[in-house]
## 1
Amino acid sequence: MRTLLVAADPTLADFGKDPLWISIIKAAVIFIVLMLGVLFGVWFERKLISRMQNRYGPNRAGKFGLLQSVADGLKMGLKEDLMPRTVDKVIYFIAPVVLAVPAFLAFSVIPMGPMVSMFGVTTPLQLTDLPVAVLLVLAMASISVYGIVLAGWGSRSPYTILGGLRASAQVVSYEIAMGLSFVGVFLFAGTLSTSEIVSAQASGGTFPLGGLDIPMPSWYMILLIPSFLIYIVTMLGETNRVPFDLPEGEGELVGGFQTEYSNSLKFAVIMLAEYVNVFVVSAVSITLFMGGWRAPFPISMWDGANAGWWPLLWFFLKMVLVFSFFIWCRASLPRVRYDQLMALGWKILIPINLGWILLVATVRAMQMETVDKSLVLILAAIVLVGCITIWWRFDSVLQKRKEEKAAQVQAEFEHLEAEPTAGGFPVPPLDLPHYHGVERKEVPSGTN
C-alpha cells in the first residue's frame, strides 16, 4: 500500500467519491478489526482485572495467554446449540443479530484519520459521513436495545423478560441524558457531522471578554467538562456495563435476558455485540470530546503528527485508554440498585444537563455580534431563577414528606413496642404454664 502524507481534514464534500472497491476494503477492514478487537478486548479485560486483583489471569494458551480468547471463541462456535422447547424460535434466533448488526453499522461514521492516499486514491480514513452522523449513532444504539428486549421476550422465561424490561427502561433513561450531553458539542462545533466535529477541535478559538480575546481549549472534554462527565456515566448505562449491568444481574436474574442462551454461537454473538458497543461508545467519546484522531499535547507540536497514517496510532491509543476505564469501573465499583439507577438518570443527569445546556447556549449567544447581549443575560437570569425556585419548591415538598413518613414510622414503632400483638402477628404470652402439653417446671439455679 503506497502512502502519501496529506495534511488535510476531510469534509462532507470528500465523501461519496470513493470507488466501490475502496469502500469495500474500508468496510472489510473495519469488520475484521472489530472482530479481532473483541478477541483482544476479552483477553485484555481479564488480564488487567487479574492484575488489579493480584493474580495472573490467562497465562496458559499461547504467549501471555493471548490464544485463550481464540480457544473460547472456537469452543462456543463448535459447542452443541441447545434450545429450550418453549422459546419463540424466530425471535430467539433474530435477537442476537439485532444486537450485533447496529453496533457494526454505528462504527461506519467514526473518523479515524485525515485524508490519505490508499492504492493511489486520495480518501478519508472513514467509511462514510453524514450531516447528521451523530444522530445515526444514537439511532443504532436505540435499535440494538430491541435485541435485548427480543432476547428476553423470545426466551419465554420470567428472568429473561425482567432483564429485557430492565434494559428498555435503562436505555430510555440514559439515552435522553446521552443525547443532551451532545448538545453542547453541537452548539460549539456548529455541525452534527463527526468529521467536522473533529476539525472543529483543531483550534479552540477565543472568547471575547472585557475587550480581551481569551484563548479557549480545543478539546471539548476540557471546554465542556460537565457534558463529558455526564456522557461517561451514560455510556456505562448504555452498554449495560458495571455498575449499571442490571439487565443481566446474576444476583437476582440468573443471567438476565441471556439466561436461556446456552454457551454456544448465539451467546458468542451476544457477547460480541456487547464489546462492539463498548468500542462504539468509546470511539464516540474520542470523536466528540477528545479531539478525535488528533495527537495529544505535546505530540501535536510535531508538524507531521496529524498527517498521513499517524493519526490511526493516536486514535488506537485513546481507544485503549477509554476501554481501560471500562475495565477499571468493572473491577472497582459494585452494582447499583435498580431504583438508584433510574433516579440517577431522571433526577440527576437530565436536570443537570438541561441547566448546563442553558449556560452553553448563553455563552454561544454572547459570542455572536448581532445579538443583544444584555437581553440574553436577562433571559438567562429569569430562567435560572425560575429553575432554582422550582427546585426549592420540590425539595421542600420532598423534605416535608420525608419528615411525615419518619414521624409515622416512629409512631408505629412505639405502638408495636407497647403492644407486640398489634402488628398482626400472633405472639405467645410469656407466662404460658404448658408448652405442647408439657407442664412448665422451674429449674433450680446451679443445676445442669
## 2
Amino acid sequence: MPHLIAPSVLAANFGQLAQDVQMLNQSAADWIHVDVMDGRFVPNISFGFPVIESIQKVAQKPMDVHLMIVEPEKYIEQFRAVGADTISVHLEACPHLHRTLQQIKATGAKAGVALNPHTPVTLLADVIQDIDVVCIMSVNPGFGGQKFIEHTYRKIEQLKALLLETGSDCLIEIDGGVNQQNAPKLLAAGADVLVAGSFVFSSANPVQTIQELKTIKI
C-alpha cells in the first residue's frame, strides 16, 4: 500500500483555517491530522469541539484526531460526533486501554494508540489486534516545530516486527519533525503514515511539499 500523508493543522494559520483546510482538500494529502491538547497531559491547549466541527464541515478527507488529553474516554463519542474518522489516545493516559479501544470502535471510528518517545512498543503486545493505527511520537508531544528524535527509527522496526509476529495489519504513523530528509528513512523502517505540520505549512508551496512527501520512493 502506498504511504499516507497526514498534514497537521496545528501548524496551519488559525486566522485562515478554512482556506488551509481547502488547500489540503486540493493537495495529495490523504488524511487531515488534528492535534487535541488539554494543558494537562501536555503543556499546551489547542482545538476544542467547535473548531473540529468547523474543520469537518470544510474537510473532504478523513480526519485523524490525536488526543493528547487525560481521561480521553470521557469524550470519545463527542469527538466522533464532530467528525473524527480515526481517534488516537495515548497509552500513557489510559489505565484501561483495551476498554477505551473498544469504546472508540463502538462509535464506528478507527482506533489508534499514540506512544510518547520514552514508551516502549512492547507494551502494545496484548492489545495490538485491537488497534488500527499506532502513532509513534518522534518528538515530545505538546508543541510543533521540535527536533526529530533519532531513536524513532529503531522503534518503528520494533513495532513492525511485532505486527509481523502477530499478523496485525495495523498502520504505523509517525508524528513529529517529519521532513524531506528523514521521510525516506522512516518509510524504509516500516512507517505507513507520515504526519507533517511545520514542514508543510511553513513551506513556500505547501501543496508541492505534500506532493513531494507523497511521491517519495524507497
## 3
Amino acid sequence: MTYQAPDATDTAPLAQQIEDLIDGLPGDHIRVGTLLHALGDEGLMLVVILLSAIFLIPVSIPGLSTVFGASILLIGLSRVRDRPLWVPQRLADKQIATDKLKANLGRALKWVHRMERLSRPMRLAAMVRSKKMMRLNNLALVFATILLMLPAGPIPFSNTLPALALMSFAIGFIQRDGAAVAAGYGFVVASVVYFGVLLGGVGFAAESVFSGFRSGSSAL
C-alpha cells in the first residue's frame, strides 16, 4: 500500500484533510522520512499543528518545548529558504507506530475543529497571496518557534501563546486564510508583551531584593 498525503491544494476543510491523513496511514509502522516526504511542504503544517497542540495547556513539561520546537524550527527554516526539509538520516529512518500517530493526530484534530470554525479560505488574501508576504510570514513562524523554545515552560501560558501563534500560522498557510495568519501575528505580539512583562517583573523583584540587602548592610 502506497501512502498518499492530503493534497496541499485541496479545498477540503483542514479537519477533513487530517481525517484523510489518519485514514490513509499504512500498516503498523511508517518511517519518519517517508511520512515527511509524503506530506510535502504545505502538508508539514499538519505536523506543526500536531506539535503545537501539545502546548495548549497553561503549564508545559520542562524541556518538551525545546525538542518539539527544534522540529518546528527545521520546518520553518526550510520554508524560509524555499528548500525541501532536511532531517538527519538517523531520524529519517526511525519507525513510528501508526496507532500512536493516529492517536496524537486525533488529539490535535479537536483543536483544529475549534480553530477551523473561525477559519475561511482567502480572507485577507493579501496576507497569503504574494511570495514576499509569505516569506515574511515564514520568518514570523520561525520567530514564534524561538519564543516557544525559550526555557520558560513552568511559567503559566509561556508556551501557550507561541503555540497559538504557530497553530494560527499553520492553519492560515494551509487554508490560505489571511485572517488566521493575522491572528498568528497577534499571538506573537501578545507573546512578546507577556515575556516583556515577565522580564520586567523579574527585574523589579531583583532590584527590590538588592535594595533591601544594601539597606540592611548600611544599617550594620
## 4
Amino acid sequence: MAQSVSALHQVQQLPRPSRAVTPGGGRRHGIGFALIAFAFLTAMAFSTVPTPLYPLYMAEDGFSTFMVTVVFATYAVGVIISLVLAGHLSDQFGRKKLLLPAIGLELAAAVLFLTSTSLPVLLVARLVTGLGVGMVTATATAHLHDLHTAHRPGASAQRFELVSTAANIGGLGVGPLVAGVLAQWVTGPLRTPYLVFAALLLASAVAVALTPETVEKPRTRPAYRPQRISVDHGDRAGFSAAAAAGFASFAVFGLFTSVAPGFVAGSLHHPSRALAGLIVFVVFGAAATAQSLTARLSTAAKRTLGLVAQLVGVVTLVAGMRTGDLTAFLVGGVVAGIGAGVLFKASVGTVAALAAPAQRSEALAGLFLISYLGLTLPAVGIGVATRSFSAVTVMTWFAAALLVLLATVAALARRRPADAG
C-alpha cells in the first residue's frame, strides 16, 4: 500500500490549487467527484488484490516466504519510481492525462496476472502495478480536491478529506477482502479476482474520461524535471521523528500486505482466503477510520495516540502468534493499524508544517520515500529471516525492532517544541 495507506498504503502530496476549472457548472463537478472517488478506490484496491492470494501462489509454484516479499518489494519500487518521475506532473499537464495512463498500467498488470502464475510474470505485474499506483495517488487526491472546491466553493474541506482517505487507505483494504472472498468461493482463485478488477478498471477509465478536467492546458510545454526530494528543513529532530514514524507506520502496512496472510495460514492454521482478506481489510479499515476520527486532534496528540496504539497493537499481535490465538492476532492487527494510520497522518502534518510552502512537495516526497523504505525493507527482512527461523521467532524480532523505533520517535519528538496543530 498503501498503500497505499496514502498507500496506505496514504501516499499523497498536499494538493495545489488548479490554475483554472473548466466551465460546466457545479453539478458536473459533483458527479465528477463521485466518479474520481470510485476510480481512486478501485485503483488502490487492485494494488492489494494479490495479498490473500500469496499462499496460493506459494503452493502453485513452490514460492518461499522470502520470494513473496521480493514480489511485494518490486511493487514498492514501482511506486517510488513513479512518485519521483511522474506523480507531480498533473499540476502541469492535467489530472486526466495522468489518471488515464495510470489506470491503463493497472489494467496491463491485470492482464499479466491472468497470463501466468510464474515468478517472472508476477514480478513484472507487480512492478507495473506500482508504477500505476504512484501516478494515481497524488493525482487522484489533487483531482478530488479540485472537484470538491468547484462543486462546493467556500465549503469546508472535510468531505474531501474523508473521501480521499476512504478511497486511498480504505481501498487498500477492499482489494484483499474482495480477492479473498472470490478466491474462497469462486472457481479459478488465481484468475477470477483479476477478471473482476479488470472490468472495474475499465469502468474506472470511463469514469475518468467523463469527469471534467480541472487544470488549464499550459500555453507552453514546461521543461520536464523529476520530483525534487528534500530532507533538511531546519529542524533535524522534527523531520527525523516524522520520517522514523513514517517508516514505522509503513512497516506495519507492509507486514499485512505481504507476509501476514501466510502467517495466518501457517502459524495460526487458518488457511481460509476469505479470512486472510478480511484481516487485511479490517486493519486498513481501522487505519482509515482512525485518520478520519482524529482529524481535529493536534499533530502532537495524533503522534502520541499513534505511538501508543502501534506499540500495544504489535505486542498483542505477536502474543497472538506465540499462543496461536487468532482473536488476539486480529485485535492486535486492528490496534496496530489504528496506530499506523494516525501516526503517519501526524508525520505528514509535521513535515508540511516544517517546510516552507515552496518546498512542501519536496519535503513530503522525502517523507514518502523514507516511508516506502519502511514498507519494503522490513518485509524483505522478515522473508529472509523465515528461511532460517520460525515465523513466530521472526515476528518477535520484528516487534522488538519496531518498539525500539517507536521509542526513538518519541525521544526525537521531545527534543523539539510542541506542535501547535
